[in-house]
Specification:
heterodimer; A: about 300 residues; mainly beta; 4-stranded antiparallel beta sheet; 1 helix; B: about 55 residues; alpha+beta; 2 strands; about 15% helix; flat
Chain lengths: ~300, ~55
């Protein structure tokens, strides 16, 4: 697929396709931020992995137009969860009308913490304390300008500080808030859906960085076969690493970029769990690292 | 980036590759025909850090 702009983390579907996410809302009438464009940007696009040539790019407008970083899909309900890389971002979900057919439309909603409407989650929240969630509808998922997050916030949605990497594992969705936390070095949140699509679920602050030496700007992340999260750092002033996070929230350095100061991105494991793949953002390299990865050490 | 099971025990790896018109050959990749591109003009302006790399390459 080509002709889209600033495609970011994205995510896989359970039915054998890839959702590519534009992290820009460049608009034809508003040239400047990321250069002149002929069409509106800020959409998700689906790419079947069985494609053997360029696919017809169809913007999935009902999923929302915003600086989308990543998506992850609940394998039971097929609800799509989405992150937005903005300093005042929201956390979204998209309930499709038809399973396995995102182009058929659906409803876009934003996460609201029941007990604290319009909560700014950037600072001052306790770790490992679940908050009950409800979801507020986004009336216009495809506005002319980058205002989807304002619609949700006006209805009480919670703000996150640059929500980026997102993954599903063991019934929960983990996502990073890259600049969140007391030290503005990053948070990792854990959202657990309710039993039904109408149930709100709960969210809790899973990890918050206490210093650059342990976690510096967490970005993309994935669940390792041994049950720890593996998180890519996108720090600005030091070597970037892959940081492991145990289910208890303990952090450890798993690997580091010894080549340059660029971020590692796109970390994932092969379906058989034997190979770890990770990209080096510049000069655009992909690494395959063989395990065994079935346990931590 | 994501990994999917492929045929005959292979793994299909899907990833983004950001491209910008005007990049030196070393930075370019495969481009779809124009009629298959969502927007032929996007993207145009590389981010600042990449512009610096290009200027120095």
């Amino acid at each position: 697929m080509a002709g889209t702009s600033r495609n970011c983390g994205g995510g896989k579907t359970p039915w054998g396709s890839w959702i590519s996410c534009e992290e820009t809302t460049a608009t034809p009438a508003q040239p400047g931020q990321h250069g002149p464009v002929q069409k509106r940007h800020g959409y998700a696009f689906e790419v079947p992995i069985a494609a053997n040539g360029p696919v017809n790019p169809v913007p999935l407008k009902a999923m929302g137009r915003f600086q989308r970083e990543a998506i992850a899909i609940d394998p039971k309900t097929h609800i799509v969860y989405q992150t937005e890389d903005r300093g005042d971002s929201l956390f979204y979900r998209f309930i499709p009308k038809e399973p396995r057919n995102l182009a058929a439309g659906g409803e876009l909603q934003a996460l609201k913490i029941k007990s604290a409407p319009k909560l700014n989650t950037g600072q001052g929240l306790p770790r490992r304390q679940p908050f009950e969630v409800e979801w507020v509808p986004i009336a216009d998922p495809d506005p002319a300008t980058d205002t989807v997050r304002y619609q949700g916030y006006e209805k009480g949605a919670a703000r996150f500080v640059r929500s980026e990497g997102l993954c599903y594992a063991n019934g929960a969705f983990y996502f990073t808030a890259t600049s969140g936390g007391q030290k503005q070095l990053g948070q990792i949140w854990c959202y657990r859906p309710g039993r039904t699509s109408t149930a709100g679920g709960t969210i809790e602050l899973f990890v918050e960085s206490a210093g650059k030496d342990v976690l510096d700007y967490p970005d993309n992340l994935t669940m390792a076969p041994w049950g720890d999260l593996i998180c890519c750092e996108d720090g600005n002033d030091r070597t970037n690493r892959l940081v492991g996070i145990t289910p208890q929230g303990q952090l450890y350095t798993f690997a580091r970029n010894a080549l340059n100061d660029q971020e590692l991105a796109g970390v994932c494991f092969s379906p058989d769990g034997q190979t770890l793949f990770v990209n080096l953002y510049h000069p655009g390299m992909t690494f395959a690292i063989w395990g065994p990865w079935h346990r931590r050490s | 980036m994501a990994a999917f099971p492929g045929p005959n025990g292979t793994t299909i790896l899907v990833r983004n590759h950001e491209m910008y018109p005007g990049l030196p050959r070393a930075f370019q990749g495969v481009v779809a025909p124009k009629d298959r591109m969502y927007d032929p003009l996007a993207p145009v302006v590389p981010p600042r850090w990449l512009s610096a790399k290009i200027a120095n390459s």
